[in-house]
Amino acid sequence: MRTNFTLVGASLSATLTAAALAGGPAWENLLVLNGTNELPTLAGAVMVPNSTNNPVIDGNGDVTLRLQLGGAGITTANSRIVYHGHTGAWSILARDGSAVPSNTPAGYVFNSTTGINGLASSNNISESGGVLVSGNINGTGNSTLLDTAMYFLPSGGGTPFLLVRESDPCPGTTGAIMSSAMTAGSGQQTNDLGQSLFATATTGGDTVTTGAGANNSAIVLFDSGSDQLVMRKGTSGKSLGYSGLTITPDTFGLWLNGSKYAFSAKLVGTGITTANDSIYITNINGNGSGAQRVWAREGDAIPGLGGLTFPNTSSISFSQHPLANDGTIIFVSALGGTGADATNNNAIMTEKFGTFTILMRKGDSIPGITDSTDANFQGKVFQGPNTSSFVKNRGGLLAFQGIFMNADGSSVTSPAPATYFGVRKADGTVLTLCRETDPVVGLPTGWVFAGMNGSTSPCISDAGVVVWSANIVNATLNEQGNAIMAWDATNGLRVLAKASSSNVSPFSPTGDTNFTGTPISQITLIGSTGNNGDGGHTGLSSNGWLTLRAADTGNSIYTIARIFLGSTANACPSDLNQDGSVNASDLATLLGAWGTGGADINGDGTTNASDLAALLGAWGACPN
Predict the structure, then answer these.
(1) Would you say the pTM of this structure is higher than 0.85?
(2) Pick the CATH number of 572-624 from 3.40.50.150, 3.20.20.10, 2.40.50.90, 1.10.1330.10
(3) Pairing status of strand 255-257 against strand 329-334
(4) Which terminal CB of the chain, N or C, has fewer other CB atoms within 10 Å?
Protein backbone atom coordinates (compact mmCIF):
# COMPACT_ATOMS: atom_id res chain seq x y z
CA MET A 1 0.00 0.00 0.00
CA ARG A 2 1.29 3.47 -0.88
CA THR A 3 1.90 5.85 1.99
CA ASN A 4 0.37 9.20 1.15
CA PHE A 5 3.21 11.51 2.15
CA THR A 6 1.28 14.43 0.67
CA LEU A 7 -1.30 14.09 3.43
CA VAL A 8 1.36 13.41 6.06
CA GLY A 9 3.25 16.51 4.96
CA ALA A 10 0.11 18.64 4.89
CA SER A 11 -0.85 17.72 8.44
CA LEU A 12 2.65 18.21 9.76
CA SER A 13 3.05 21.54 8.01
CA ALA A 14 0.60 23.09 10.46
CA THR A 15 3.00 22.37 13.33
CA LEU A 16 6.30 24.10 12.73
CA THR A 17 9.44 23.34 14.64
CA ALA A 18 11.09 25.90 16.90
CA ALA A 19 12.92 27.11 13.82
CA ALA A 20 9.73 28.50 12.30
CA LEU A 21 8.15 31.90 12.68
CA ALA A 22 6.23 31.67 15.93
CA GLY A 23 2.57 32.44 15.42
CA GLY A 24 3.15 33.10 11.73
CA PRO A 25 2.18 31.35 8.51
CA ALA A 26 2.85 27.64 8.03
CA TRP A 27 4.58 25.89 5.18
CA GLU A 28 2.30 24.11 2.74
CA ASN A 29 3.76 20.98 1.19
CA LEU A 30 2.54 20.97 -2.40
CA LEU A 31 4.22 17.81 -3.70
CA VAL A 32 6.09 14.98 -1.99
CA LEU A 33 8.27 12.91 -4.32
CA ASN A 34 9.25 9.58 -2.78
CA GLY A 35 9.00 7.12 -5.67
CA THR A 36 5.54 5.86 -4.66
CA ASN A 37 3.37 8.97 -4.45
CA GLU A 38 1.15 9.42 -7.47
CA LEU A 39 1.01 12.62 -9.46
CA PRO A 40 -2.22 14.33 -8.32
CA THR A 41 -3.60 14.62 -11.87
CA LEU A 42 -2.42 11.38 -13.51
CA ALA A 43 -3.47 8.09 -11.92
CA GLY A 44 -0.76 5.44 -11.88
CA ALA A 45 2.10 7.87 -12.59
CA VAL A 46 4.43 8.21 -9.63
CA MET A 47 6.77 11.13 -8.98
CA VAL A 48 10.46 10.19 -9.14
CA PRO A 49 12.51 11.42 -6.15
CA ASN A 50 15.05 14.18 -6.77
CA SER A 51 13.81 14.69 -10.34
CA THR A 52 12.76 18.34 -10.16
CA ASN A 53 14.61 21.51 -10.87
CA ASN A 54 14.16 24.47 -8.53
CA PRO A 55 10.50 25.51 -8.43
CA VAL A 56 9.36 29.04 -9.27
CA ILE A 57 6.30 30.89 -8.06
CA ASP A 58 4.15 33.77 -9.32
CA GLY A 59 2.07 36.44 -7.61
CA ASN A 60 -0.96 34.13 -7.53
CA GLY A 61 0.91 31.53 -5.48
CA ASP A 62 1.12 29.08 -8.39
CA VAL A 63 4.29 27.01 -8.64
CA THR A 64 5.90 25.81 -11.88
CA LEU A 65 8.54 23.08 -12.13
CA ARG A 66 9.75 20.26 -14.35
CA LEU A 67 9.65 16.77 -12.87
CA GLN A 68 10.01 13.15 -13.96
CA LEU A 69 7.39 10.40 -13.76
CA GLY A 70 7.65 6.65 -13.27
CA GLY A 71 5.18 3.78 -13.14
CA ALA A 72 3.12 1.75 -15.56
CA GLY A 73 3.24 3.05 -19.11
CA ILE A 74 5.99 5.58 -18.38
CA THR A 75 9.06 5.46 -20.62
CA THR A 76 11.95 7.77 -21.42
CA ALA A 77 9.77 9.12 -24.24
CA ASN A 78 6.98 10.48 -22.00
CA SER A 79 8.37 10.72 -18.46
CA ARG A 80 9.08 14.45 -18.12
CA ILE A 81 6.42 17.09 -17.54
CA VAL A 82 6.13 20.78 -16.78
CA TYR A 83 3.72 21.01 -13.83
CA HIS A 84 1.91 24.12 -12.70
CA GLY A 85 -0.44 25.15 -9.91
CA HIS A 86 -0.96 24.39 -6.24
CA THR A 87 -2.77 21.84 -4.08
CA GLY A 88 -6.11 20.96 -5.66
CA ALA A 89 -5.40 22.98 -8.80
CA TRP A 90 -2.54 21.28 -10.65
CA SER A 91 -2.22 20.99 -14.41
CA ILE A 92 0.30 19.50 -16.84
CA LEU A 93 1.42 22.31 -19.14
CA ALA A 94 3.68 20.17 -21.33
CA ARG A 95 4.91 16.58 -21.50
CA ASP A 96 7.54 14.66 -23.41
CA GLY A 97 5.84 12.68 -26.16
CA SER A 98 2.72 14.85 -26.09
CA ALA A 99 1.58 17.51 -28.54
CA VAL A 100 3.32 20.84 -28.37
CA PRO A 101 1.20 23.80 -27.17
CA SER A 102 -1.44 25.01 -29.67
CA ASN A 103 -0.41 22.06 -31.90
CA THR A 104 2.09 24.27 -33.69
CA PRO A 105 3.69 22.82 -35.79
CA ALA A 106 0.79 20.45 -36.40
CA GLY A 107 1.48 16.91 -35.26
CA TYR A 108 4.69 17.74 -33.41
CA VAL A 109 5.51 16.52 -29.90
CA PHE A 110 8.18 17.38 -27.35
CA ASN A 111 11.08 14.98 -28.06
CA SER A 112 14.09 14.61 -30.29
CA THR A 113 14.15 12.31 -33.29
CA THR A 114 15.47 9.58 -30.99
CA GLY A 115 12.29 9.81 -28.92
CA ILE A 116 13.79 11.15 -25.71
CA ASN A 117 15.04 14.37 -24.12
CA GLY A 118 12.22 16.73 -25.00
CA LEU A 119 11.50 19.42 -22.42
CA ALA A 120 14.26 21.79 -21.30
CA SER A 121 14.85 22.02 -17.57
CA SER A 122 14.61 25.77 -16.98
CA ASN A 123 11.42 27.18 -15.49
CA ASN A 124 10.90 30.66 -16.93
CA ILE A 125 7.81 32.51 -15.75
CA SER A 126 6.46 36.03 -15.84
CA GLU A 127 5.33 37.92 -12.76
CA SER A 128 1.63 37.25 -13.32
CA GLY A 129 2.13 33.56 -14.03
CA GLY A 130 2.78 33.18 -17.76
CA VAL A 131 5.08 30.21 -18.42
CA LEU A 132 7.78 29.83 -21.07
CA VAL A 133 8.11 26.17 -22.11
CA SER A 134 10.88 25.05 -24.45
CA GLY A 135 12.70 21.98 -25.68
CA ASN A 136 13.32 19.58 -28.54
CA ILE A 137 10.34 19.01 -30.83
CA ASN A 138 9.75 16.33 -33.46
CA GLY A 139 7.07 15.42 -35.98
CA THR A 140 6.27 14.02 -39.38
CA GLY A 141 8.67 15.22 -42.02
CA ASN A 142 11.34 16.37 -39.60
CA SER A 143 14.77 15.30 -40.80
CA THR A 144 16.73 17.44 -38.34
CA LEU A 145 18.36 15.65 -35.43
CA LEU A 146 17.40 18.50 -33.11
CA ASP A 147 14.56 20.90 -33.85
CA THR A 148 13.83 23.23 -30.93
CA ALA A 149 11.18 25.77 -30.01
CA MET A 150 9.87 28.03 -27.24
CA TYR A 151 6.18 28.47 -26.36
CA PHE A 152 4.48 30.96 -24.08
CA LEU A 153 1.48 29.87 -22.04
CA PRO A 154 -0.27 32.99 -20.73
CA SER A 155 -1.58 33.06 -17.17
CA GLY A 156 -5.17 32.12 -16.49
CA GLY A 157 -5.43 29.59 -19.27
CA GLY A 158 -4.94 32.01 -22.15
CA THR A 159 -4.22 30.59 -25.59
CA PRO A 160 -0.62 29.31 -25.83
CA PHE A 161 1.46 30.45 -28.77
CA LEU A 162 4.69 29.52 -30.50
CA LEU A 163 7.19 32.20 -29.57
CA VAL A 164 10.14 31.10 -31.70
CA ARG A 165 11.42 28.04 -33.51
CA GLU A 166 14.96 27.11 -34.43
CA SER A 167 15.84 28.39 -37.92
CA ASP A 168 13.22 31.13 -37.85
CA PRO A 169 14.24 34.27 -39.78
CA CYS A 170 16.41 36.63 -37.78
CA PRO A 171 14.72 40.05 -37.71
CA GLY A 172 16.64 43.01 -39.09
CA THR A 173 18.70 40.86 -41.49
CA THR A 174 18.49 39.93 -45.15
CA GLY A 175 17.68 36.25 -45.27
CA ALA A 176 19.67 35.16 -42.20
CA ILE A 177 18.15 32.60 -39.86
CA MET A 178 18.62 32.04 -36.14
CA SER A 179 20.73 28.90 -35.84
CA SER A 180 21.01 28.41 -32.06
CA ALA A 181 18.94 25.83 -30.21
CA MET A 182 15.76 27.57 -29.04
CA THR A 183 15.72 26.23 -25.52
CA ALA A 184 15.41 28.62 -22.59
CA GLY A 185 18.36 29.03 -20.25
CA SER A 186 18.31 29.40 -16.48
CA GLY A 187 19.01 33.12 -16.58
CA GLN A 188 16.63 33.97 -19.41
CA GLN A 189 14.11 36.76 -18.78
CA THR A 190 10.44 36.49 -19.86
CA ASN A 191 7.78 39.15 -19.25
CA ASP A 192 3.98 39.13 -18.89
CA LEU A 193 3.54 39.68 -22.64
CA GLY A 194 5.52 36.53 -23.42
CA GLN A 195 8.50 38.47 -24.73
CA SER A 196 11.91 36.95 -24.01
CA LEU A 197 15.45 38.21 -24.54
CA PHE A 198 17.85 35.76 -26.21
CA ALA A 199 21.32 35.61 -27.77
CA THR A 200 21.52 33.54 -30.94
CA ALA A 201 23.95 32.60 -33.68
CA THR A 202 22.91 33.28 -37.29
CA THR A 203 23.58 31.58 -40.58
CA GLY A 204 22.59 31.96 -44.22
CA GLY A 205 21.41 35.06 -46.05
CA ASP A 206 23.66 38.04 -45.36
CA THR A 207 25.57 36.28 -42.56
CA VAL A 208 29.34 36.76 -42.62
CA THR A 209 31.27 34.39 -40.35
CA THR A 210 34.86 35.63 -40.59
CA GLY A 211 36.87 38.78 -40.96
CA ALA A 212 36.14 42.39 -40.08
CA GLY A 213 32.59 42.11 -41.40
CA ALA A 214 31.59 39.12 -39.25
CA ASN A 215 27.97 39.43 -38.16
CA ASN A 216 27.03 35.86 -37.25
CA SER A 217 25.40 36.46 -33.84
CA ALA A 218 22.67 38.69 -32.47
CA ILE A 219 20.52 39.56 -29.48
CA VAL A 220 16.83 39.23 -30.28
CA LEU A 221 13.72 40.10 -28.30
CA PHE A 222 11.35 37.27 -29.13
CA ASP A 223 7.81 38.56 -29.57
CA SER A 224 5.31 36.30 -31.30
CA GLY A 225 4.77 37.60 -34.79
CA SER A 226 7.10 40.57 -34.46
CA ASP A 227 10.56 39.59 -33.19
CA GLN A 228 12.84 42.57 -32.67
CA LEU A 229 16.56 42.73 -33.43
CA VAL A 230 18.17 44.33 -30.38
CA MET A 231 21.72 44.29 -31.76
CA ARG A 232 23.74 42.27 -34.26
CA LYS A 233 27.43 41.53 -34.19
CA GLY A 234 29.23 44.00 -36.46
CA THR A 235 26.75 46.82 -35.86
CA SER A 236 28.25 50.26 -36.46
CA GLY A 237 28.96 52.17 -33.26
CA LYS A 238 28.16 55.51 -34.87
CA SER A 239 24.68 55.92 -33.40
CA LEU A 240 26.12 55.32 -29.93
CA GLY A 241 28.95 57.81 -30.35
CA TYR A 242 31.68 55.44 -31.56
CA SER A 243 32.19 56.26 -35.25
CA GLY A 244 34.60 53.96 -37.06
CA LEU A 245 34.06 51.14 -34.57
CA THR A 246 31.77 48.12 -34.59
CA ILE A 247 30.00 46.42 -31.69
CA THR A 248 29.83 42.76 -30.71
CA PRO A 249 27.10 42.12 -28.12
CA ASP A 250 27.87 39.61 -25.39
CA THR A 251 25.84 36.40 -25.25
CA PHE A 252 25.35 36.43 -21.47
CA GLY A 253 23.97 38.88 -18.94
CA LEU A 254 20.86 39.93 -20.86
CA TRP A 255 18.38 41.81 -18.67
CA LEU A 256 14.71 42.51 -19.36
CA ASN A 257 12.05 44.43 -17.43
CA GLY A 258 8.91 44.89 -19.51
CA SER A 259 10.02 46.90 -22.55
CA LYS A 260 13.31 47.88 -20.89
CA TYR A 261 16.49 45.91 -21.52
CA ALA A 262 20.23 46.06 -20.91
CA PHE A 263 23.24 44.06 -22.04
CA SER A 264 27.01 44.27 -22.32
CA ALA A 265 29.07 44.34 -25.51
CA LYS A 266 32.57 44.81 -26.91
CA LEU A 267 33.88 47.59 -29.15
CA VAL A 268 36.02 46.48 -32.10
CA GLY A 269 38.35 48.62 -34.20
CA THR A 270 41.35 50.94 -34.23
CA GLY A 271 42.48 52.07 -30.79
CA ILE A 272 40.44 49.48 -28.91
CA THR A 273 42.23 47.31 -26.37
CA THR A 274 41.13 45.02 -23.53
CA ALA A 275 41.38 48.09 -21.29
CA ASN A 276 38.58 50.03 -23.01
CA ASP A 277 36.49 47.62 -25.11
CA SER A 278 33.66 46.74 -22.68
CA ILE A 279 30.51 48.84 -22.93
CA TYR A 280 27.09 48.58 -21.28
CA ILE A 281 24.01 49.36 -23.32
CA THR A 282 20.36 50.00 -22.46
CA ASN A 283 17.25 51.39 -24.11
CA ILE A 284 16.22 53.11 -20.85
CA ASN A 285 16.23 56.86 -21.47
CA GLY A 286 15.02 59.75 -19.39
CA ASN A 287 13.27 61.23 -22.41
CA GLY A 288 11.27 58.04 -22.98
CA SER A 289 12.45 57.59 -26.56
CA GLY A 290 13.61 54.01 -26.13
CA ALA A 291 16.73 54.67 -28.23
CA GLN A 292 19.80 52.74 -27.16
CA ARG A 293 22.56 54.46 -25.21
CA VAL A 294 25.86 53.44 -23.63
CA TRP A 295 25.51 54.13 -19.93
CA ALA A 296 29.00 52.92 -18.93
CA ARG A 297 32.32 52.03 -20.55
CA GLU A 298 35.45 50.61 -18.98
CA GLY A 299 38.22 53.18 -18.74
CA ASP A 300 35.78 56.10 -18.77
CA ALA A 301 35.21 58.59 -15.98
CA ILE A 302 32.03 58.09 -13.95
CA PRO A 303 29.97 61.29 -14.34
CA GLY A 304 29.47 63.27 -11.17
CA LEU A 305 31.83 61.22 -9.01
CA GLY A 306 34.94 63.38 -8.87
CA GLY A 307 37.34 61.61 -11.23
CA LEU A 308 36.43 58.02 -10.43
CA THR A 309 36.56 55.61 -13.37
CA PHE A 310 35.48 52.14 -14.42
CA PRO A 311 38.99 50.69 -14.49
CA ASN A 312 39.00 47.30 -16.26
CA THR A 313 37.18 44.65 -18.26
CA SER A 314 35.63 43.07 -15.16
CA SER A 315 34.64 46.36 -13.58
CA ILE A 316 30.88 45.93 -13.61
CA SER A 317 28.79 42.97 -12.48
CA PHE A 318 25.09 42.42 -12.02
CA SER A 319 22.97 40.25 -9.83
CA GLN A 320 19.23 39.79 -9.56
CA HIS A 321 16.83 41.93 -11.65
CA PRO A 322 19.09 44.98 -12.01
CA LEU A 323 16.54 46.98 -14.05
CA ALA A 324 13.98 48.79 -11.92
CA ASN A 325 10.59 49.91 -13.22
CA ASP A 326 11.58 53.58 -12.80
CA GLY A 327 14.65 53.15 -15.02
CA THR A 328 17.27 52.68 -12.30
CA ILE A 329 20.08 50.20 -13.01
CA ILE A 330 21.82 48.63 -9.98
CA PHE A 331 25.26 47.05 -10.22
CA VAL A 332 28.59 46.48 -8.47
CA SER A 333 31.69 48.08 -9.90
CA ALA A 334 35.39 48.28 -9.32
CA LEU A 335 36.57 51.89 -9.03
CA GLY A 336 39.67 53.52 -10.42
CA GLY A 337 40.88 57.07 -10.87
CA THR A 338 41.13 59.94 -8.41
CA GLY A 339 41.03 58.88 -4.77
CA ALA A 340 40.59 55.16 -5.45
CA ASP A 341 42.99 52.78 -3.73
CA ALA A 342 42.97 49.34 -2.12
CA THR A 343 40.81 50.60 0.75
CA ASN A 344 37.88 51.97 -1.30
CA ASN A 345 38.00 50.75 -4.92
CA ASN A 346 34.67 48.94 -5.11
CA ALA A 347 31.02 50.00 -4.69
CA ILE A 348 27.38 49.06 -5.04
CA MET A 349 25.98 51.71 -7.34
CA THR A 350 22.97 52.82 -9.33
CA GLU A 351 22.61 54.67 -12.62
CA LYS A 352 19.45 56.49 -13.67
CA PHE A 353 19.31 58.53 -16.86
CA GLY A 354 23.02 59.40 -16.61
CA THR A 355 23.16 60.07 -12.87
CA PHE A 356 25.34 57.72 -10.82
CA THR A 357 24.87 57.16 -7.08
CA ILE A 358 27.03 55.13 -4.71
CA LEU A 359 24.91 53.15 -2.26
CA MET A 360 27.72 51.40 -0.39
CA ARG A 361 31.48 51.68 -0.94
CA LYS A 362 34.41 49.57 0.10
CA GLY A 363 35.80 51.02 3.32
CA ASP A 364 32.42 52.15 4.67
CA SER A 365 31.69 51.53 8.33
CA ILE A 366 29.26 48.69 9.03
CA PRO A 367 26.81 49.04 11.92
CA GLY A 368 27.22 46.16 14.34
CA ILE A 369 30.67 45.31 12.98
CA THR A 370 32.90 48.38 12.76
CA ASP A 371 31.52 49.63 16.08
CA SER A 372 31.36 46.19 17.73
CA THR A 373 32.94 45.50 21.11
CA ASP A 374 33.69 41.95 19.93
CA ALA A 375 37.33 41.69 18.92
CA ASN A 376 36.39 39.41 16.01
CA PHE A 377 34.48 42.27 14.40
CA GLN A 378 35.69 45.51 15.91
CA GLY A 379 37.13 47.96 13.40
CA LYS A 380 36.31 45.84 10.35
CA VAL A 381 34.82 47.71 7.37
CA PHE A 382 32.85 46.92 4.24
CA GLN A 383 34.77 45.21 1.44
CA GLY A 384 31.90 44.47 -0.94
CA PRO A 385 29.01 42.15 -1.64
CA ASN A 386 29.30 38.74 -3.13
CA THR A 387 28.68 39.58 -6.79
CA SER A 388 25.84 37.06 -7.14
CA SER A 389 24.17 37.98 -3.87
CA PHE A 390 22.63 41.45 -3.88
CA VAL A 391 19.12 42.50 -4.83
CA LYS A 392 16.92 45.60 -4.59
CA ASN A 393 13.13 45.84 -4.54
CA ARG A 394 10.89 48.47 -6.12
CA GLY A 395 10.74 50.39 -2.85
CA GLY A 396 14.52 50.92 -2.79
CA LEU A 397 15.40 48.33 -0.12
CA LEU A 398 18.74 46.70 -0.92
CA ALA A 399 19.61 43.28 0.52
CA PHE A 400 23.10 41.82 0.19
CA GLN A 401 25.47 39.15 1.41
CA GLY A 402 28.51 41.16 2.43
CA ILE A 403 32.18 40.60 3.04
CA PHE A 404 34.16 42.75 5.44
CA MET A 405 37.88 43.48 5.67
CA ASN A 406 40.45 45.23 7.80
CA ALA A 407 40.48 49.03 7.56
CA ASP A 408 43.81 48.99 5.71
CA GLY A 409 42.26 47.01 2.87
CA SER A 410 43.69 43.64 3.78
CA SER A 411 41.48 40.58 3.92
CA VAL A 412 40.33 39.12 7.19
CA THR A 413 42.22 35.86 7.63
CA SER A 414 40.89 32.58 8.95
CA PRO A 415 39.61 31.65 11.47
CA ALA A 416 38.21 35.12 12.10
CA PRO A 417 34.69 35.67 10.64
CA ALA A 418 34.53 37.61 7.37
CA THR A 419 30.94 37.47 6.09
CA TYR A 420 27.55 38.83 7.07
CA PHE A 421 24.11 39.64 5.67
CA GLY A 422 22.67 43.14 5.65
CA VAL A 423 20.19 45.57 4.16
CA ARG A 424 20.28 49.22 3.13
CA LYS A 425 16.96 51.03 3.39
CA ALA A 426 15.81 53.57 0.83
CA ASP A 427 16.72 56.39 3.24
CA GLY A 428 20.34 55.18 3.38
CA THR A 429 20.15 53.43 6.76
CA VAL A 430 22.31 50.29 6.80
CA LEU A 431 21.45 47.35 9.07
CA THR A 432 23.49 44.21 9.79
CA LEU A 433 21.04 41.31 10.08
CA CYS A 434 23.36 38.42 10.89
CA ARG A 435 27.11 37.87 11.20
CA GLU A 436 29.24 34.79 10.73
CA THR A 437 29.76 33.09 14.16
CA ASP A 438 26.70 34.82 15.71
CA PRO A 439 24.08 32.59 17.42
CA VAL A 440 21.16 31.81 15.11
CA VAL A 441 18.07 33.56 16.42
CA GLY A 442 15.26 31.04 16.92
CA LEU A 443 17.44 27.92 17.09
CA PRO A 444 18.63 26.11 20.23
CA THR A 445 21.87 27.21 21.89
CA GLY A 446 24.95 26.05 20.01
CA TRP A 447 23.79 26.86 16.48
CA VAL A 448 25.80 29.69 14.90
CA PHE A 449 26.09 31.21 11.44
CA ALA A 450 28.95 29.78 9.35
CA GLY A 451 30.63 31.41 6.37
CA MET A 452 28.07 32.79 3.93
CA ASN A 453 30.11 33.84 0.92
CA GLY A 454 28.31 32.97 -2.33
CA SER A 455 25.74 30.66 -0.75
CA THR A 456 22.91 32.94 0.38
CA SER A 457 20.64 33.00 -2.73
CA PRO A 458 18.84 36.15 -1.52
CA CYS A 459 15.41 37.25 -2.72
CA ILE A 460 13.20 40.17 -1.75
CA SER A 461 9.54 41.14 -2.03
CA ASP A 462 8.18 44.59 -2.72
CA ALA A 463 6.63 44.54 0.75
CA GLY A 464 10.17 44.53 2.16
CA VAL A 465 10.49 40.88 3.16
CA VAL A 466 14.02 39.57 2.58
CA VAL A 467 14.71 35.82 2.42
CA TRP A 468 18.08 34.11 2.17
CA SER A 469 19.88 30.85 2.94
CA ALA A 470 22.54 30.96 5.66
CA ASN A 471 25.07 28.24 6.40
CA ILE A 472 24.86 27.15 10.04
CA VAL A 473 26.92 24.88 12.28
CA ASN A 474 26.71 23.36 15.76
CA ALA A 475 30.14 22.31 17.03
CA THR A 476 28.75 20.75 20.19
CA LEU A 477 26.41 18.44 18.28
CA ASN A 478 28.89 18.05 15.41
CA GLU A 479 26.18 19.03 12.91
CA GLN A 480 25.94 21.47 10.03
CA GLY A 481 23.41 22.64 7.48
CA ASN A 482 21.58 25.76 6.37
CA ALA A 483 18.69 27.86 7.62
CA ILE A 484 16.21 29.76 5.49
CA MET A 485 16.18 33.19 7.11
CA ALA A 486 13.66 36.01 6.75
CA TRP A 487 13.66 39.63 7.81
CA ASP A 488 11.38 42.61 7.47
CA ALA A 489 11.15 45.86 9.39
CA THR A 490 8.01 44.76 11.26
CA ASN A 491 8.81 41.19 12.26
CA GLY A 492 12.61 41.35 12.43
CA LEU A 493 14.95 38.40 11.92
CA ARG A 494 13.59 34.86 12.09
CA VAL A 495 14.18 31.33 10.83
CA LEU A 496 11.66 29.90 8.36
CA ALA A 497 13.18 26.43 8.02
CA LYS A 498 16.29 24.42 8.89
CA ALA A 499 18.05 21.59 7.08
CA SER A 500 20.96 19.86 8.79
CA SER A 501 22.78 16.58 9.28
CA SER A 502 25.42 15.11 11.52
CA ASN A 503 29.07 15.24 10.52
CA VAL A 504 29.59 11.64 11.61
CA SER A 505 28.94 8.80 9.15
CA PRO A 506 26.24 7.90 8.15
CA PHE A 507 25.51 11.65 8.24
CA SER A 508 21.92 11.24 9.44
CA PRO A 509 19.53 14.21 8.86
CA THR A 510 18.64 16.36 11.87
CA GLY A 511 16.65 19.20 10.31
CA ASP A 512 12.97 20.15 10.41
CA THR A 513 10.41 17.36 10.24
CA ASN A 514 7.44 19.38 8.99
CA PHE A 515 8.29 18.91 5.29
CA THR A 516 8.70 15.15 4.87
CA GLY A 517 7.63 13.76 8.25
CA THR A 518 11.30 12.94 8.82
CA PRO A 519 14.28 15.25 9.48
CA ILE A 520 15.46 17.03 6.34
CA SER A 521 19.08 17.34 5.27
CA GLN A 522 18.66 19.67 2.29
CA ILE A 523 16.70 22.83 1.53
CA THR A 524 17.21 24.99 -1.56
CA LEU A 525 16.19 28.42 -2.84
CA ILE A 526 16.37 29.12 -6.58
CA GLY A 527 18.86 31.94 -6.08
CA SER A 528 20.18 34.50 -8.54
CA THR A 529 18.90 32.79 -11.72
CA GLY A 530 15.30 33.12 -10.51
CA ASN A 531 14.37 36.34 -12.29
CA ASN A 532 11.43 37.22 -14.50
CA GLY A 533 11.21 39.80 -17.27
CA ASP A 534 8.98 42.10 -15.22
CA GLY A 535 11.61 43.21 -12.71
CA GLY A 536 10.84 40.61 -10.05
CA HIS A 537 12.17 37.39 -8.57
CA THR A 538 10.62 33.99 -9.26
CA GLY A 539 11.57 32.28 -5.99
CA LEU A 540 9.84 34.97 -3.90
CA SER A 541 7.09 36.82 -5.73
CA SER A 542 6.79 40.58 -5.44
CA ASN A 543 3.77 40.20 -3.15
CA GLY A 544 5.36 37.59 -0.87
CA TRP A 545 4.83 34.01 -2.10
CA LEU A 546 7.98 31.92 -1.43
CA THR A 547 8.72 28.44 -2.80
CA LEU A 548 11.61 26.02 -2.29
CA ARG A 549 12.74 22.38 -2.31
CA ALA A 550 13.33 20.42 0.88
CA ALA A 551 14.57 16.84 1.18
CA ASP A 552 15.43 13.96 3.42
CA THR A 553 18.11 12.73 1.05
CA GLY A 554 18.88 9.62 3.11
CA ASN A 555 15.35 8.30 2.68
CA SER A 556 14.90 9.79 -0.83
CA ILE A 557 11.92 11.97 0.09
CA TYR A 558 11.81 15.32 -1.70
CA THR A 559 9.19 18.04 -1.29
CA ILE A 560 8.10 21.20 -3.02
CA ALA A 561 6.68 23.70 -0.53
CA ARG A 562 5.36 27.24 -0.44
CA ILE A 563 4.60 29.84 2.21
CA PHE A 564 3.06 33.31 2.06
CA LEU A 565 5.16 36.04 3.69
CA GLY A 566 3.21 39.11 2.64
CA SER A 567 0.30 40.75 4.40
CA THR A 568 -3.09 39.06 4.31
CA ALA A 569 -4.38 41.88 2.14
CA ASN A 570 -1.73 41.11 -0.49
CA ALA A 571 -2.12 37.32 -0.59
CA CYS A 572 -4.35 37.76 -3.64
CA PRO A 573 -3.31 41.15 -5.10
CA SER A 574 -5.75 40.95 -8.01
CA ASP A 575 -8.67 40.80 -5.55
CA LEU A 576 -9.00 44.58 -5.55
CA ASN A 577 -12.19 44.69 -3.47
CA GLN A 578 -10.94 41.93 -1.12
CA ASP A 579 -14.06 39.76 -1.36
CA GLY A 580 -12.04 36.55 -1.69
CA SER A 581 -12.42 36.19 -5.44
CA VAL A 582 -11.09 37.83 -8.60
CA ASN A 583 -14.13 38.59 -10.72
CA ALA A 584 -15.99 41.16 -12.81
CA SER A 585 -16.07 43.68 -9.95
CA ASP A 586 -12.27 43.69 -9.78
CA LEU A 587 -12.05 43.99 -13.57
CA ALA A 588 -14.34 47.02 -13.52
CA THR A 589 -12.22 48.62 -10.78
CA LEU A 590 -9.05 48.06 -12.78
CA LEU A 591 -10.45 49.46 -16.01
CA GLY A 592 -11.78 52.49 -14.12
CA ALA A 593 -8.28 53.18 -12.79
CA TRP A 594 -6.50 52.69 -16.15
CA GLY A 595 -3.49 54.96 -16.54
CA THR A 596 -3.40 55.86 -12.83
CA GLY A 597 -1.93 54.06 -9.82
CA GLY A 598 -5.37 53.21 -8.42
CA ALA A 599 -5.33 49.48 -9.25
CA ASP A 600 -1.59 48.90 -9.63
CA ILE A 601 -1.37 45.14 -9.02
CA ASN A 602 2.30 44.62 -9.95
CA GLY A 603 3.65 47.69 -8.17
CA ASP A 604 5.15 49.49 -11.17
CA GLY A 605 3.25 52.71 -10.42
CA THR A 606 0.69 52.56 -13.24
CA THR A 607 -2.46 50.54 -13.92
CA ASN A 608 -1.83 49.11 -17.38
CA ALA A 609 -1.80 45.97 -19.53
CA SER A 610 0.52 44.11 -17.15
CA ASP A 611 -1.99 44.57 -14.33
CA LEU A 612 -4.82 43.43 -16.60
CA ALA A 613 -2.83 40.28 -17.46
CA ALA A 614 -2.22 39.64 -13.76
CA LEU A 615 -5.92 40.04 -12.94
CA LEU A 616 -7.09 37.75 -15.74
CA GLY A 617 -4.47 35.19 -14.74
CA ALA A 618 -5.83 35.12 -11.17
CA TRP A 619 -9.51 34.94 -12.21
CA GLY A 620 -11.62 32.94 -9.76
CA ALA A 621 -11.35 32.15 -6.06
CA CYS A 622 -8.23 33.40 -4.30
CA PRO A 623 -5.82 30.74 -2.97
CA ASN A 624 -6.29 29.83 0.66
Answers:
(1) yes
(2) 1.10.1330.10
(3) unpaired
(4) N
